[in-house]
Amino acid sequence: MVNVLTGPKGSGKTQQMIELANQAAKVSNGNVVLIKKSHRNTYSVDFSIRTICMTDYKEIETIDAFKGFLYGMAAGNHDIESVFIDSVLKQADISLSNLPSFLNILKKISEENHIDFFVSIGASKEELSDVDLSECKLLN
Question: Of 1, 52, 68, 72, which one's alpha carbon is 20 to 30 angstroms from that of 59?
Answer without folding.
Answer: 1
